[in-house]
Amino acid sequence: MPIYTVHEPPRRDDELLAHTARFAFVRDGFHFWAFLLAPFWMLRHRLWLELIVYLLLIGGITFVLRRLGIEESVGGAVWFLTSLLVGIEASSLLRWKLARRGFDNLGVVVAEDQDIAERRFFDGWVSDTGRLATPASAAPSAPSPFERPASSEIVGLFPQPEARP
C-alpha cells in the first residue's frame, strides 16, 4: 500500500480553506516516469536545480568516458543506472524541493491513492469540536534520542538499579 508524506506550505494571509488546499502529498516509492524520462519529469515538477545537477552529472560522466576512451556501451549502462537512481529517489527530490520552499513535513499517511490519503489526513487533523487542530496537537512530537530519559527504577534487564553481587 502506498505511503504519502504530508507537507504544509508557509502560512499566507488567506482563509484556512485556501491554506489547506495548498498542502502537498508526496507518494513514496519508485516513480516510473522519473526513471523513463528523467529530464522531462524534472521539468514537469519544476525541479530546476535538480535538473541542472542531473544534466551536469550526465555531461561530466560522458566527457570523462570519452576522454578515457571507454566504449559507448558503458555510457548506456551509466545512463541507465543514473535514471534508475532518479526513479528511486524521485520522492526525495520532491520533498527536498518542498523543504527549500519552506513547507513543513507534518507526517505520513498510508492509503490506496492520494484522494484517500488526503481524506485520512484531514479526518485525523480535525478535532472533535469540528475546528482544525493545530499541527502540534495533530502529531505529538517524538522524544529526542539525545535527551536523557525520565528516571526509572530499572536499568537494562536488571530489576533493581544496583549491580548484581
The chain-level mean pLDDT equals: 81
| Strands in their spatial order, largest beta sheet | 2-1-3
Largest sheet: 3 strands, antiparallel
Number of domains: 1
Portion in strands: 5-15%
The overall strand count is: 3
How many helices? The count is 7
**Spatial gap, N to C terminus:** 52 Å
Helix content range of the residues, please?
40-55%
Label the overall shape.
Answer: elongated
Q: What would you call the structural class?
A: mainly alpha
- Stretches where pLDDT is under 50 for at least 5 consecutive residues are none
- What string, H for helix and E for strand, traces the elements in order? EHEHHHHEHH
Query: Radius of gyration over alpha carbons?
Result: 23 Å
Task: Give an overview of the whole structure.
The protein is built from 7 helices and 3 strands. The mean pLDDT is 81. It has helices at 16-21, 32-36, 38-44, 48-67, 72-100, 114-125, 135-138, and strands at residues 3-8, 24-27, 104-110. 50% of the residues lie in helices and 10% in strands. It has one domain. A 3-stranded antiparallel beta sheet has the order 2-1-3, sandwiched between helices. By secondary structure, the protein is mostly helical.
What's this entry about, in short?
This protein is 50% helix and 10% strand.
Task: Explain the layout of strands and helices.
Elements: E1 3-8, H1 16-21, E2 24-27, H2 32-36, H3 38-44, H4 48-67, H5 72-100, E3 104-110, H6 114-125, H7 135-138
Antiparallel strand pairs: 1-2, 1-3
Helix pairs in contact: 3-4, 4-5
